[in-house]
């Protein structure tokens, strides 16, 4: 008897420690079974208590009276499916007449407490069917990406969402994106994850890192062009604009359309070209964009205008030529001068890490999702890497990228170094690499002026 008691106490203690230290393992071992039992046993009473039931239909009442049976109780939405996942449960519900998806969304906090889950979100799948996603623990505290993700060309699984699903950066759906955040909020780590995710794909990477190149130069083996000061950046961007023009000529030649067909009618892009003709898509990563927009004298002002004009042109026309912009900065508003708000309007994807004030959050979401602004200001300083990701449809999610160290990213880039395409336009900006494969940090930046 005492042995049994001791064994039970030990198991309970082990489960407690597991739950505290390794919530993901706890969930996979005990948590998921307990949660399924809890949801199934409590379902009826919880739905009733949360106001998600409807009175029985009249014909049921009449039938009960006629046959002298007990009067039927209120009815909860029918469970169509209950699916355990790596991080929680997914419940698919068929609503009763008179209920709507908003009722479920409004009750999600009550459901969370009643089922003792960490988070509950819901969305309508189709008319009358609602999916309720529950997470068993704080999945963003220690981000672990699932081993298998749905990979497609130009679509990078970059972070985990609060509801446990994977957040993708899909360049073909959202060509250009803006990432904002105060210093030390996790922008560079997010960008590093993107580079690591893009490295195994058929894509050319171009980096502009005016912080002396500290973030991107260690990854140089996978980059087709790198710039670490505004002057080189201006040359790189001009070369990209020239490349864009040439790609449009290729697309146009392939279509064999007479020159008098209006441009608007030949909506086509590089993905419509046959594979052997298709130019390599290019992702342009800009870290600390404000460095490109600041100037101290007339000459720098000229360069700044050149840079911003090139960025605006790439943002407006780059998508069809397979040139995608990924811009990071601390602030990105009209105080950086003319052209900035025009550029921002072209950057569809928006991600905001922790920001210090509402105006910075407004630069990311003010024009698309006002409630995301509030969520961005509320990110706690100690949760670095936590971010709000939205797009121009007004939807947004809380996301966090895994903490990829610079060393891990360097290793991934070195492993895929042979995939780095040589783009003729960008050849002068190709980082000069020192000989051995395990010397990741390249020599000083190549500059066309000194080359
Ligand atoms: N997703 C993350 N998970 C855990 N820690 C993170 C994450 N992102 C950033 N950090 C921490 O925050 C620090 C600063 O991140 P960094 O990306 O360099 O900030 P920023 O570029 O915004 O100044 C990193 O050194 C890292 O320790
Ligand atoms: Mg940074």
TrEMBL record:
Residues 420-451 are annotated as: Disordered. Keywords: ATP-binding, Nucleotide-binding. InterPro entries: FtsK/SpoIIIE/SftA, FtsK_dom, P-loop_NTPase. The keyword Nucleotide-binding applies. It comes from the Bacteria. Residues 163-362 form the FtsK domain. GO terms for molecular function: ATP binding; DNA binding. It comes from Streptomyces argyrophylli. ATP binds at residues 181-188. This is Plasmid transfer protein. Pfam families: FtsK_SpoIIIE.
